[in-house]
Design goal:
CATH topology: UDP N-Acetylglucosamine Acyltransferase, domain 1
InterPro entries: Hexapep, Hexapep_transf_CS, LbH_SAT, Trimer_LpxA-like_sf
CATH superfamily: Hexapeptide repeat proteins
Order of helices and strands: HHHHEEEEEEEEEEEEEEEH
Number of strands: 15
CATH architecture: 3 Solenoid
Radius of gyration: 17 Å
Distance between the termini: 30 Å
Organism: Paenibacillus nanensis
Number of domains: 1
Keywords: Acyltransferase, Repeat, Transferase
Largest sheet: 6 strands, mixed
Strand content: 15-25%
Shape: globular
Protein name: Serine acetyltransferase
CATH class: Mainly Beta
GO molecular function: acyltransferase activity
Amino acid sequence: MEVVFVVTFKELKYHWFSDLYRYEESMKVSMAKVFYRQFFFAGYHFMFWLRLCSYLKQKGKLCRPLYFLALVILQRYKYKYGIGISPSTKIGKGFYIGHFGGIVVNSNATIGENCVIMQGVTIGASNRGATKGVPTIGNNVYIGAGAKIIGNVRVGNYAAIGANAVVTKDVPDHAVVGGIPAKIISLEGSEGYISFPYPSEVLMKQAGLLPKTKEQ
């Protein structure tokens, strides 16, 4: 799994569109909708500014004033919504914050595509021992309310982390884990918990990364 920072405005639009789709499953996306739908979804509102900060941070000195302005606005929403995620965190497309409050993600962590995190989630570092480091979260992962994922562990694709689980070891693809420490409960994965995974080709065309067909 490779998650990279956006470097072009079209890529930024694609990430905005993909995030918004997770909230309302609408193919009728536009920049106007990207802006005004922020005020209907707190999680998307936060991610709009986080994505913008991440983009501006990559643009160098010319965009430095705009980056700091966006960072001040993002900081305000961090405190308002209780979401501690840094623009330095690599987060894939289609990111969904189910409920806000008490969310903390280490700036060096990596989160894949189409992931869901709920309130009270911590994705944090371990500073010593065999798991020293930060987590890597795969694609299509559901992380339930109050769950903690700590240290240099990998959460596989399509995994589901139960509410209040404490994960300190790798989680296989399609596993459902729960408890303290977390143990495998089943291999049914996150199916049913990942609503509206983004349809990449359609949204890439909407963002201008692929040529639009006549039907669109």
